[in-house]
Specification:
Chain lengths: ~375, ~700
């Protein structure tokens, strides 16, 4: 690489010209492959493209001078231009970092391998479901209410018209806090069995009108199986004002169910019994899976039971009126409703075992990401 | 309960609706037929009914027939049981004394003589077969049959084993009774018993006694039909763990007027296989009890109130007032009209659930049909407010979800050992009086045990990469109450596997710390620092590794404790993998406002980066280095960060004093660090002499901490 050589006398037959230029090209490629850094590559550039002593300059003048005929000149010129293009583009490509040409022996990447992902965490299906329900009622003018998970007997039962020793209490197996025996019954602490105590706490705090939606965790003394859990979640609602009617209750829940499940969903109401509402109702929605024609999820009935609700019992207003006299059952009226979040989430996501919600099983949770 | 459609029809001669239609009509009125089963030609249907606890009157065939009569506007056949005239003297065959009038409101006794105890036949046998009800003997079956027919429980005693008068009294201390189920029970002085002059015969309203049980050789029978105080029955039933068909009905409020009819129906059935009535029916009534039930005063019903509560109907006409009155009458009320828009309603003795005007309004709506009311929306007044913590919880949750932590929910309960271990202070744990299991005997004082349980759950199932958080409530005892605080737990194990074919990186302490930092950065904190947990007393949780755990202190409050799980805890939980766990005290964090981003001016001039390579004694923490650089107060020092840290490895060296020496050319107990800095000015491009001055200041600050610049 030290002294630029003067081209030897050459044979101008096309075949030998091809061989000659191929040899030059290979030499250049070797030079470039041997250059491992910018300095080396700069040396290669000078060796080949140097204005006076560069190989291409030498070849150009040397071969052209020797060419015996215009045809031979043309043959040389064409090959020379190809070589020059090759040298320039390779050196240029390296300089600009372009990938348009690849180094010898460089393999293509396997674009079919999985990409490097930074996955966001998965929302818990129960919390996600709870938020969806709450959002519907927020859009209808409901504020969010919250309350303690450890409640007194008064708020969980008595003020909601479950008198002491009433059989209605049997339907809600209650987990009791230890060491409460010395207290009067109404002050004894227990794990709230429903989110309804927040209704009373809210009414005690503020006069009507009231519109609240109450999401929360509740507990019952139910042994765990595929559909029962000592822990579960409810969303409860309360609307109190002048002239709130049973048809308002129907319309509100019908609207909410359509907002949650689509405008094709129908609702129907059945008389039921809850101590804190009168009249009381259970609400079914037309099956969100089959549209009402009957499927496995709705047990072929076309309907799914989703809510309990009713007009607030005047006895409940009487308890609230002890602190807020504006809850006069003769002047105001209201409705309340409640739904189980687990039941809805199990149906919506096809979960067969309620226990999976509380296991922390990553395989289960990541499905909701 | 099981109901036969044909049995219902026997009380509804005018009913033309089919069985399926009837079941649907009842269900829509809250008398829910959960399942209906075709029993075959001529046998009608069996309805599996779910009757709500308030409707004890409908827990029998006649009661449900009454509902159907009201729905369809049909006549209900009367229930009657004419008995043959009493033989012999008209003198009562038995004396009844109610000594506990607060617990027993009415007691009837009828004596039957010369009866034949034999298997039941006829309608009883037929209907019991369809209901899959066990046949016992005609006497026992008769009482069960009447309960199914019209709902009033009765009892039959072997009269020859009764000694003297029948006495309704409280049990005496230490008194015992062997009940029909063969259990010898110690009675409570609050239990109401049916006794004779020498012994207890029955636990009133709950279960009869063994001694006076009807036997094949029984000849003379005493039929009891009574009314007991609901609360008393409920307490006895609970006390003895005995829930029977009789107690179920009495504790929900039986019909005060039913005993004579129930007694007659039972007697009629029993006499159909022989025997005669002896003497008149003995019927002892407690006037107070009667006044509270069958003799209740009439209540008002106003047309305007019906409208005010029920609102609009689909046909736009509203609930029909005339029809409402007919419905109430069909249900057994008697109405006294008081002008065009009001009436007074006398309530039926079998509907103790009806007490107030609103109860009548519910009955009207129920029979009218809920789905015939319109769907209206109330007008809106008032403002929408959210609890102040809501936006904060939402922010915390979303920031963790965004950086790859999945959300979990664990049990609210923990074991006593975990409660003690994880409680932030001793003596604040809260026990459950009636826990589901010992492992769930306490309210959780921290979310950490639940998080560790979830980590273990995954690792035990060969799921090694876990990155979970939970937001939930922790409980602690305070005098007279239980305090609740919101908390957030983090659990981390395994490695970050971005892609299966690329090398994964094991999670470490700094991954956990990063999550904590990410979360805290959402809040507006004036000063924050992290430090190692002070060992021994104080806030250092024993469940964290003493060398690889930390706390975060924001504006003077500890807001988080986190780190590697303590080895003892890991062993106890059989966790072979390294796991990281942390708890963030959201109650404290929520006192801080959320950070509101404020846009800063950006410099137009070129930044200059300078690296400083130093060796420090191991005792110098990054926090000290950062503070020293901060204290330089160089306005143009735009950023600095630790880049490469090398602690060297200890290699064996027999010549060294302790047999070890550090490798990598570092003195013992020293580490090297490359500190990257960025200088940038808002006023112009930095000149060499300025940079030189800054560099010297940085070097001086680092040297003052005991650092030595590397060449």
């Amino acid at each position: 690489m030290s002294d630029p050589e003067k081209p030897a006398t050459i044979d101008f037959s096309p075949a030998s010209l091809d061989r000659l230029f191929q040899a030059h090209r290979s030499e250049f490629d070797r030079d470039l492959a041997d250059a491992h850094n910018d300095t080396g590559r700069e040396a290669v550039r000078i060796k080949w493209l140097g204005r006076k002593q560069g190989k291409l300059a030498l070849y150009s003048s040397g071969y052209m001078q020797q060419a015996p005929s215009p045809d031979a000149k043309k043959e040389v010129g064409r090959r020379f231009n190809e070589l020059k293009q090759h040298v320039e583009s390779r050196l240029e490509g390296l300089a600009s970092g372009s990938q348009s040409e690849t180094a010898a022996g460089e393999a293509a990447i396997d674009v079919t391998l999985p990409g490097m992902r930074r996955r966001p965490g998965a929302e818990h299906p129960l919390i996600k479901t709870m938020h969806e329900i709450v959002a519907v009622f927020e859009a209808m003018g409901y504020s969010i209410g919250v309350g303690p998970e450890v409640e007194t007997d008064y708020y969980n039962f008595e003020s909601l018209n479950f008198p002491p020793n009433h059989p209605a209490r049997d339907t809600q197996d209650t987990l009791l806090i230890a060491g409460q025996e010395a207290k009067p019954l109404r002050e004894r602490l227990l794990m709230r069995t429903h989110t309804s105590p927040v209704q009373m706490r809210t009414m005690e705090r503020q006069p009507p009108p009231v519109r609240i939606v109450i999401p929360g965790k509740v507990h019952r003394n139910d042994a765990a199986d595929a559909t029962h859990s000592p822990i579960f979640h409810q969303v409860e609602g309360l609307c109190v004002d002048e002239n709130i009617t049973f048809s308002d209750l129907k319309g509100t829940l019908d609207h909410a169910m359509k907002a949650l499940f689509g405008s094709a969903v129908k609702t129907r109401f059945f008389p039921s019994f809850f101590p804190f509402t009168e009249p009381s109702a259970d609400v079914q929605i037309s099956c969100i899976f089959c549209g009402g024609s009957g499927c496995r999820k709705c047990k072929q009935s076309g309907w799914i039971e989703l809510l309990g609700c009713g007009m607030v019992d005047p006895a409940v207003f009487a308890f609230a009126a002890q602190k807020q006299p504006a809850y006069d059952a003769g002047k105001i009226s209201g409705f309340a409703f409640g739904m189980g979040v687990e039941r809805l989430a199990m149906m919506k996501y096809g979960v067969s075992d309620i226990g999976q919600f509380y296991s922390g099983d990553v395989r289960f949770l990541e499905q909701f990401g | 309960m099981k109901i036969l459609s044909n049995w219902l029809r026997s009380y509804l001669p005018g009913l033309t609706a089919g069985d399926r239609e009837l079941a649907e009509a009842l269900t829509l009125r809250g008398i829910a037929a959960e399942g209906i089963f075709d029993l075959g030609p001529g046998k009608g249907f069996l309805f599996e009914m779910d009757i709500t606890t308030n409707r004890v009157d409908a827990m029998n065939h006649y009661g449900i027939a009454r509902e159907a009569a009201a729905i369809y506007g049909l006549a209900l056949a009367p229930l009657e049981a004419p008995l043959p005239a009493a033989s012999g003297a008209t003198q009562p065959a038995v004396e009844v004394r109610i000594e506990a009038p607060d617990l027993c409101g009415r007691f009837t006794a009828r004596a039957l003589s010369g009866v034949r105890i034999q298997p039941s036949g006829g309608a009883v046998r037929e209907r019991f077969a369809l209901l899959e009800q066990k046949l016992i003997s005609n006497a026992v079956d008769a009482t069960n049959y009447v309960t199914l027919a019209m709902g009033h429980p009765t009892h039959a005693f072997d009269r020859d084993k009764v000694e003297g008068a029948i006495i309704l009294r409280r049990a005496r201390k230490s008194e015992r009774l062997k009940t029909l189920d063969g259990v010898d029970r110690l009675l409570d002085p609050e239990d109401l018993v049916v006794a004779d002059e020498r012994k207890v015969l029955a636990l009133a309203g709950v279960m009869g006694g063994w001694e006076t049980m009807i036997a094949p050789e029984t000849k003379n029978v005493l039929v009891e039909a009574a009314w007991f105080d609901p609360l008393s029955i409920r307490r006895s039933s609970k006390r003895h763990g005995l829930h029977t068909d009789a107690s179920h009905r009495f504790e929900r409020g039986a019909d005060f007027n039913a005993p004579p009819l129930a007694s007659a129906l039972v007697s009629q059935l029993l006499l159909s296989s022989g025997g005669s009535v002896e003497g008149e029916l003995v019927d002892v009534i407690v006037p107070d009890a009667m006044a509270r039930t069958a003799g209740r005063a009439a209540i008002p019903l106003r047309r305007g109130e019906v409208r005010r509560i029920l609102g609009a109907t689909e046909d736009g006409r509203g609930v029909d007032w005339e029809r409402s009155q007919l419905v109430l009458e069909a249900l057994g009320c008697s109405l006294q009209v008081e002008g065009p828009d009001a009436c007074r309603v006398t309530l039926p003795s079998w509907r103790l659930d009806l007490e107030r005007e609103i109860d009548l309004i519910e009955e009207i709506a129920r029979i009218y049909g809920y789905n015939r009311f319109a769907n209206t929306l109330p007008g809106f007044s008032g403002a929408v407010v959210s609890p102040p913590e809501r936006a904060k919880e939402d922010t915390a949750r979303r920031s963790l979800l965004a950086v790859g932590w999945s959300e979990a929910i664990s049990s609210s309960f923990c074991s006593a050992a975990d409660a003690d271990m994880f409680a932030p202070q001793p003596g604040i744990t809260v026990a459950v009086a009636n826990p589901l299991s010992e492992e769930a005997g306490m309210l959780r004082p921290s979310l950490a045990p639940g998080m560790l349980a979830m980590l273990a759950y995954n690792l035990n199932r060969d799921v090694y990469d876990v990155q979970l958080f939970e937001i939930g409530t922790c409980f602690s005892a305070a005098p007279g109450r239980v305090d609740e605080r919101p908390a957030l737990s983090l659990g981390l194990a395994g490695s970050s596997a971005a892609s299966p074919h690329l090398p994964s990186r094991p999670f470490g302490f700094y991954d956990l710390k990063g999550a904590v930092e990410e979360l805290l950065e959402r809040f507006s904190i004036r000063s924050i620092y992290f430090d190692a947990l002070p060992s021994g007393a104080g806030p250092a949780p024993a469940w964290l590794h003493p060398l690889r755990s930390a706390r975060a202190v924001a504006d003077g409050e500890t807001v988080a404790c986190f780190g590697e799980l303590a080895p003892a805890q890991a062993r106890q939980r059989k966790l072979r993998q390294t796991v990281f766990v942390g708890e963030i005290y959201l109650d404290r964090l929520y006192r801080l406002p959320l950070r509101r981003p404020i846009a800063r001016e950006l410099s137009r001039f070129q930044p200059v980066r300078r690296d400083f390579s130093f060796i420090f004694p191991a005792s110098v923490r990054w926090q000290q280095i950062a503070s020293a650089l901060d204290e330089l107060s160089l306005a143009d020092l735009a950023a600095f960060a630790p880049r490469e840290i090398f602690r060297g490895e200890t290699v064996r060296d027999s010549r060294a004093k302790d047999g070890k020496r550090p490798a990598g050319g570092l003195p013992a107990d020293h580490y090297s660090i490359l500190i990257g800095t960025t200088f940038q000015s808002f006023t112009g491009t930095l000149r060499d002499e300025e940079l030189q001055r800054y560099s010297e200041a940085v070097v001086a600050a680092l040297e003052s901490l005991g650092g030595k610049q590397r060449g």
